[in-house]
């Protein structure tokens, strides 16, 4: 089993026993608006089993479930890169946990899996997430207009951010 250790977090591959906790997180206030339509079958097939080309990890802090992070890869040699999605439980926000989790995953993607670039695409109005990603070293690339459908059924802009290996910060939370 793959286990990645950050300064404050441990990331471990999600397993079937994590499905209920992940689903509860994705449907919770403060997360559901960014992850509409979270469904058990999607968590099982995409997160745990790796279907849909995503690889899911549980974020743990001192052994407790703190959130969820996943990555996907573009393997076309002309465009090879990876992307990250992350969600944190309410008690773990604004404490550096998300920053550490994203940095730990980015380091794995860049150093261990050999990607030269990692992308992330938060909703353009998700200031908390954008601040955390910038602390890791992600740079704003541009706004993707009407990129995703929100929980309210309307289309929302997202901010495309990327990180090159030279951009990755060392240990700042």
The count of strands amounts to 8
Fraction of residues in helix: 10-25%
Question: How far apart are the first and last residues' alpha carbons, in Å?
Answer: 27 Å
Question: Uncertain spans, ≥5 residues at pLDDT below 50?
Answer: none
Question: Structural class of the helix and strand makeup?
Answer: alpha+beta
How many helices in DSSP terms? 4
Q: What is the CATH C level class of the domain at 3-120, in words?
A: Alpha Beta
Reported for the largest beta sheet, the result is: 8 strands, mixed
SSE string: EEHHEEEHEHEE
User: What is the averaged pLDDT score?
Assistant: 91
What's the architecture of the domain at 3-120, going by CATH? Answer: 3-Layer(aba) Sandwich
Q: Give the strand content.
A: 25-35%
Biggest sheet strand line-up: 1-2-3-4-5-6-8-7
CATH homologous superfamily title of the domain at 3-120:
Gcn5-related N-acetyltransferase (GNAT)
Query: Which topology of the domain at 3-120 does CATH recognise?
Result: Aminopeptidase
Rg value: 15 Å
User: In one word, what is the shape?
Assistant: globular
Oligomer: single chain
Task: Describe the protein's topology.
Layout: E1 3-5, E2 10-13, H1 19-26, H2 40-48, E3 54-61, E4 64-74, E5 81-88, H3 97-112, E6 117-120, H4 127-136, E7 139-149, E8 155-164
Helix pairs in contact: 1-2, 3-4
């Amino acid at each position: 089993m793959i286990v990645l250790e950050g300064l404050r977090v441990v990331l471990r591959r999600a397993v079937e026993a994590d499905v209920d906790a992940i689903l509860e997180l994705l449907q919770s206030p403060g997360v559901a608006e960014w992850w509409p339509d979270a469904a058990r079958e999607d968590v099982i097939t995409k997160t745990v089993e790796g279907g849909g080309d995503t690889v899911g990890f549980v974020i743990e802090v001192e052994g407790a479930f703190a959130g969820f992070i996943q990555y996907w890869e573009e393997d076309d040699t002309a465009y090879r890169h990876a992307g990250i999605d992350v969600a944190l439980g309410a008690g773990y926000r604004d404490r550096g946990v998300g920053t550490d989790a994203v940095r730990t995953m980015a380091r794995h993607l860049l150093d261990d899996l050999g990607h030269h670039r990692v992308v992330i695409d938060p909703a353009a109005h998700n200031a908390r997430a954008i601040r955390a990603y910038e602390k890791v070293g992600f740079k704003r690339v541009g706004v993707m207009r009407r990129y995703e459908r929100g929980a309210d059924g309307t289309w929302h802009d997202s901010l495309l951010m990327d990180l090159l290996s030279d951009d990755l910060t060392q240990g700042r939370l």
